[in-house]
Amino acid sequence: MPRLKFDHVSFLVRNLDQAVKDYQQMLEVLDPEQAKQIVWDEGVEQGYKLRWATFVNPNGASLQFFESENPNDLKLLEKYGERVHHIAFTSDEIAKTVEDLDKAGIPLTSKELSGPNHIPWLKWTFVPPRKAHGVLIEVAQRYKVQDGKWVKDEI
Question: Is 0.85 topped by the overall pTM?
Answer without folding.
Answer: yes
